[in-house]
Amino acid sequence: MISFKEALNILNLNYGYNEESLKTAYKNKSKIWHPDLGRDPSGEMMKKINMARDILMAYLVSKGNKVDFELSLSKIQLIYVFQSLKKMRSIKYCLTK
After folding, report:
1. 7: exposed, middle or buried (C-beta count within 10 Å: 0-12, 13-18, 19+)?
2. How many other C-beta atoms can be found within 10 angstroms of the C-beta atom of residue 29?
3. How far is the C-alpha of 14 from the C-alpha of 50, rounded, in Å?
4. Beta carbons within 10 angstroms of residue 22's beta carbon
5. What is the pTM of this model?
């Protein structure tokens, strides 16, 4: 899980960002780092970009309320953990076949 400051750095945003600037920054970064474009075939950077977008959007939705933001971060973290487990399970299934 990346921190709030790392998320800002990944998308090259400052603390005064809004939803429109977040969407623009996400589009620009995803055009550069999308795995289908060949720059990062493993997709690790794109995963970081997606996580950064989710974290920064959660902060916008919580409107700075720390408790709501922490709950949103916990939900995001659980989603990414479950996605990783799903992938690991499908890989294990393919290897055992």
Report:
1. buried
2. 20
3. 17
4. 19
5. 0.72
Distance CA(83)–CA(52), nearest Å, equals 16
Per DSSP, 35 falls in state G
**86 vs 21 pLDDT, higher one:** 21
The single residue listed with the structure tokens 């076949």 is 97
Q: What is the mean pLDDT of residues 83-97?
A: 59
Terminal C-alpha separation, the chain: 32
What one-character-per-residue DSSP string does 36-83 give? GGTS-TT-HHHHHHHHHHHHHHHHHHHTT-HHHHHHHHHHHHHHHHHH
